[in-house]
């Protein structure tokens, strides 16, 4: 008996994670240097690991408050205040999720009804649209590729005019896959448009500690009543595997997001929460130290790609380069990605994965060793020269 036709309609039509899927298809190529995943190659700082070991030895292995243990919430709120001037109550305005992937799911599940519309500037992280569609809502894409990959106030005004009942807009900055970000003035110009509409602003700021040209400005300081800020420990503290995300915003919204969270996970792992608490309390400079290395790697990789004929927007944050495929190659980013993996032994992500405006580009992550990046540059130059 086949009961697959009786499952949830949203699950029937759901696509697998395209980033994971593409990575698996090329992962077994012998000698491949992979720049596919957005994961720091640094180890988690020792003081954070020590806090986790201490928590384990103290038997921190039980259920916790679903919002997160109080020290984590207090230290995360203090970190956000000192870094970005965000002002949240640790008792009512923050919840802890099992990674920000869960946080994204919780937020959209909380705010969306079937038929709602969510504005998504692209190229961007594909899990946003996937979660919108899972909740039987509709993504409204804004292709930013003709505007230096930044959402402009005019484009946003036009989109609101065409979709006056949009429920939410999600913005990710510094951006994955482009590696760019917004200045405070650019964010304020967008906020001036958004505040004229009764919409949620979902601000994914997971790369907030990785801005290279000027300090990060959080949307939560510009539109506190409308903004849900998403952040976490993964990128700033090299803790991707610890799975600690945080979601902050108005208390009456966070309480509902936390309710959805408790349906999926009773709580994040106990000892991992204590590790993240230590990170937020005493790791203010951890991300900055990593960023210095990322800046050197960014220059190494981008200079090499430019010499080989790849053009790209100037990355001003995160650890990605979205590079235009040279004209002599197949502009289908999937086909080019396979070709590069098989012939040059370099693994990248096809730009098409990241939505409208992404095809014809490929994403490189420079969260890799200097040795690997140096070899990648050599392999790509040789690959281009042979074609």
Automatic annotation (TrEMBL):
<dbReference type="InterPro" id="IPR015422">
    <property type="entry name" value="PyrdxlP-dep_Trfase_small"/>
</dbReference>
<dbReference type="Pfam" id="PF00155">
    <property type="entry name" value="Aminotran_1_2"/>
</dbReference>
<dbReference type="GO" id="GO:0008483">
    <property type="term" value="F:transaminase activity"/>
</dbReference>
<keyword id="KW-0808">Transferase</keyword>
<feature type="domain" description="Aminotransferase class I/classII large">
    <location>
        <begin position="32"/>
        <end position="380"/>
    </location>
</feature>
<dbReference type="InterPro" id="IPR050596">
    <property type="entry name" value="AspAT/PAT-like"/>
</dbReference>
<comment type="similarity">
    <text>Belongs to the class-I pyridoxal-phosphate-dependent aminotransferase family.</text>
</comment>
<keyword id="KW-0663">Pyridoxal phosphate</keyword>
<dbReference type="InterPro" id="IPR015421">
    <property type="entry name" value="PyrdxlP-dep_Trfase_major"/>
</dbReference>
<dbReference type="InterPro" id="IPR015424">
    <property type="entry name" value="PyrdxlP-dep_Trfase"/>
</dbReference>
<dbReference type="InterPro" id="IPR004838">
    <property type="entry name" value="NHTrfase_class1_PyrdxlP-BS"/>
</dbReference>
<keyword id="KW-0032">Aminotransferase</keyword>
<protein>
    <recommendedName>
        <fullName>Aminotransferase</fullName>
        <ecNumber>2.6.1.-</ecNumber>
    </recommendedName>
</protein>
<dbReference type="InterPro" id="IPR004839">
    <property type="entry name" value="Aminotransferase_I/II_large"/>
</dbReference>
């Amino acid at each position: 008996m086949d009961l697959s036709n009786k499952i949830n309609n949203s699950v029937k039509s759901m696509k697998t994670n395209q980033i994971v899927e593409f990575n698996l298809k090329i992962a077994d190529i012998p000698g491949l240097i992979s720049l596919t995943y957005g994961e720091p190659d640094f180890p988690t700082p020792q003081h954070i690991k020590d806090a986790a070991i201490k928590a384990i030895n103290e038997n921190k292995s039980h259920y916790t408050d679903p919002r997160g243990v109080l020290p984590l919430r207090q230290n995360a709120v203090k970190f956000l205040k000192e870094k970005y001037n965000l002002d949240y109550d640790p008792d009512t305005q923050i919840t802890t999720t099992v990674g920000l992937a869960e946080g994204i799911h919780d937020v959209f599940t909380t705010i969306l009804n079937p038929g709602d519309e969510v504005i998504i500037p692209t190229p961007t992280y594909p899990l946003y649209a996937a979660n919108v569609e899972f909740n039987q809502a509709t993504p409204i894409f804004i292709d930013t590729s003709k505007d230096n990959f930044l959402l402009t106030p005019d484009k946003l005004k036009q989109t609101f005019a065409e979709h006056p009942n949009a429920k939410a807009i999600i913005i990710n900055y510094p951006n994955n896959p482009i590696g760019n970000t917004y200045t405070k003035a650019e964010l304020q110009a967008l906020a001036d448009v958004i505040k004229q509409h009764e919409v949620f602003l979902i601000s994914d700021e997971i790369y907030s500690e990785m801005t290279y040209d000027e300090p990060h400005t959080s949307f939560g300081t510009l539109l506190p009543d409308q903004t849900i800020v998403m952040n976490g420990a993964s990128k700033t503290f090299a803790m991707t595997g610890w799975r600690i995300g945080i979601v902050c915003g108005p208390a009456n919204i966070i309480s509902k997001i936390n309710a959805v969270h408790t349906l999926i996970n009773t709580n994040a792992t106990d000892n991992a929460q204590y590790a993240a608490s230590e990170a937020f309390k005493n790791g203010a400079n951890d991300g900055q130290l990593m960023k210095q290395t990322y800046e050197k790697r960014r220059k190494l990789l981008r200079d090499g790609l430019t010499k080989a004929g790849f053009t790209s927007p100037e990355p001003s944050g995160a650890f990605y380069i979205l590079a235009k495929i040279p004209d002599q190659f197949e502009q289908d980013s999937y086909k080019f990605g396979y070709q590069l993996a098989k012939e040059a032994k370099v693994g990248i992500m096809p730009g098409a994965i990241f939505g409208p405006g992404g095809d014809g580009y490929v994403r490189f992550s420079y969260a890799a060793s200097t040795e690997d990046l140096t070899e990648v540059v050599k392999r790509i130059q040789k690959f281009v020269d042979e074609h």
